[in-house]
Write a structure and sequence with these properties.
Layout lengths: L7 H24 L10 E2 L19 E6 L5 E5 L7 E2 L13 H16 L5 E3 L12 E2 L12 E3 L5 E4 L3 H17 L8 H31 L3 H13 L12 H22 L10 H17 L4 H14 L1 H27 L28 E3 L8 H9 L5 H4 L3 H16 L7 H7 L2 H23 L17 H7 L1 H8 L2 H19 L10 H8 L6
Parallel strand pairs: 1-4, 3-9
Antiparallel strand pairs: 2-3, 5-6, 5-8, 7-8
Length: 537
């Protein structure tokens, strides 16, 4: 007997309901975005100057001794805006919708471009030096509410720039220019209006489109109502795109761009070779190329996604991929390099200068001093095995904070094994062309996840600073959700499986909801371990 058709209309109504609630909640949080000063992460010190809110660059990045190493060296903890040894302000801080170093670095560039027609966000002149300002620093990033650690300094000109790739900031500056030019709005005087309107257009609107497209893909690849609804609910409430909607960042933009590229790519995969209808139209290739490349330009590790998608479509349809995907993909790449050169006078991003003079100038948060062992979440002094554990299963873990992604790995491995059993090693090109869309998405997800995790384990011991989750993996979110479809459907047929799925969803929602007031805060697992003295950076 044939299985009765799933109630498609009813499912879509539930999808729309869930998406409406998720986007409305994100908009509400954007409209109330406000930097909150929490007593539990500050300390009081009567010996400090009244009203002191230490800005590392303005105050020469003071250091505080916190202990001795076994070799007798002092261990220092930097006293900065994003470090735990921060002082409770004695005077009322200036209210601001800017949350931390990461987003302030981008907002400073946006303000500088529109108001000063320059990428420079500050400068240093010893002639201005005073006891309170020993380096003679001045500019946007030294104003109250605009301080940031995420800057570099040209050692020849002593001019400061954001360390973030400037393409995204340049595009957002276009919106601020319109508000500034035609509405007379200022990001200083009218900060609440400018910042919140920008976040609604840069974060909330793409989030709406992202959820609708992702729900469509989940519905296409799922086979049970329960499994589909579990994944759509996860997309709406259990990932970090929602919490990060209230702050200007590249991670949500990259995640949305991945879906905007994946949706046309999967349409191409299903329609190409359909001689009756002429195959997939050219604009789908252009959209896939444009957004895959833009994801890579806003989140550099996502370059692996853009390259993989290009190769897959090249195998499927070489002519149209070269003719439409590639030219569209080159547009964001050109913008990335041109804006980078205009900003810092180099074709390579400022990240490539890490450890060099652009980062390690006197007073820099990142400067390493002889005989000084720095502490803090930016300087995790631990072995690679410990770092890898915490990056996957520990206090900043991809799987511990969003355990629903365990289903993603199970589903991806199962689909990959099933696909390989069809003889992919004997005739790889023909095999790849015949792969169903979900199977190559699952394989791609598995390869990209392993590659990105291995990259960070090899390259760094940094968890991304003060952040409520593994933000460097956020762009993988839509891929992980799609790869989870077969595992979610398998759980749907078992009562205990449904209970397990709900538990994984609930824990994931807990993690995403924990930093309700500011996503630039530690995860709940980190706070729990720190409270019991099990971790201390």
């Amino acid at each position: 007997m044939d299985k009765p058709a799933e109630p498609l209309l009813s499912r879509r109504r539930v999808y729309v309901l869930l998406v409406t609630v998720a986007v409305a909640a994100a908009c509400g949080r954007i409209l109330s975005a406000n930097r909150v000063y929490e007593p539990d992460i500050h300390r009081t010190d009567p010996g400090r100057a009244a009203g002191a809110i230490l800005a590392p660059l303005a105050a020469a990045n003071p250091l505080e001794a916190v202990g001795l190493t076994a070799g007798g060296q002092y261990v220092w903890r930097t006293v900065g805006e994003d470090e735990p040894a921060r002082l409770w302000p004695r005077a009322r801080p200036e209210p601001t919708p800017l949350f931390g170093s990461n987003d302030r670095s981008r907002w400073a560039t946006i303000r500088a471009l529109v108001e000063n027609h320059s990428y420079a966000v500050g400068d240093r002149d010893p002639a201005r030096a005073t006891p309170q300002n020993p380096y003679g620093n001045a500019g946007i990033i030294f104003e109250d509410g605009w301080q940031t650690l995420d800057v570099v300094m040209n050692p020849d000109t002593h001019v400061f720039y954001s360390s973030k790739p400037p393409l995204l900031s340049t595009l957002v500056a276009g919106e601020y220019w319109l508000m500034h030019r035609f509405l007379g709005l200022s990001i200083v005087e009218d900060r609440w209006t400018v910042v919140r309107v920008t976040l609604l257009t840069v974060n909330a609107l793409p989030f709406l489109i992202y959820l609708l497209l992702l729900a469509g893909l989940i519905d296409r690849f799922g086979t049970t109502d329960w499994g589909r609804l579990l994944l759509v609910a996860t997309a709406c409430f259990a990932t970090y795109l929602g919490p990060f909607a209230i702050t200007l960042n590249n991670h949500t933009v990259a995640a949305c761009s991945v879906v905007f590229a994946l949706f046309p790519a999967l349409s191409i995969w299903e329609r190409e070779g359909d001689a009756l209808n002429g195959g997939a139209p050219a604009y789908l290739y252009a959209l896939a190329g444009l957004f895959a490349s833009f994801a890579a330009c806003t989140e550099l590790p996502a370059t692996s996604f853009a390259v993989a998608l290009f190769v897959l479509l090249l195998v499927k349809s070489p002519g149209r991929t070269l003719g439409f995907f590639l030219p569209a993909a080159l547009l964001p790449v050109a913008g990335f390099f041109v804006t980078n050169y205009l900003a810092i006078g180099k074709w390579t991003p400022a990240y490539g200068e890490f450890g060099g003079p652009m980062y390690e100038y006197p007073g820099s948060h990142w400067k390493r001093e002889p005989g000084v062992v720095k502490r803090g979440i930016d300087f995790a002094a631990e072995g690679k095995a410990v770092y890898a554990f915490h990056l996957l299963l520990g206090h900043h873990g991809l799987l511990s904070l969003t355990p629903v992604f365990v289903l993603s790995l199970v589903g991806a491995v199962w689909l990959a094994v099933r696909a390989l059993r069809r003889g992919g090693l004997r005739r790889p090109v023909a095999w790849l062309r015949a792969l169903p869309g979900l199977e190559w998405v699952a394989g791609l997800t598995l390869v990209l996840t392993v590659t990105v995790v291995a990259f960070y384990v090899y390259k760094t011991n940094n968890y991304g600073g003060w952040t409520s989750g593994p933000r460097w993996f956020m762009w993988l979110t839509p891929l992980l959700l799609l790869a989870a479809a077969p595992a979610a459907d398998w759980l749907a047929g078992r009562r205990w499986g449904c209970g397990l799925g709900l538990l994984l969803l609930g824990l994931s929602v807990l993690s995403a909801s924990y930093p309700a007031w500011n996503p630039w805060r530690h995860p709940w697992i980190y706070n729990l371990l720190e409270a019991h003295g099990w971790v201390r950076y």
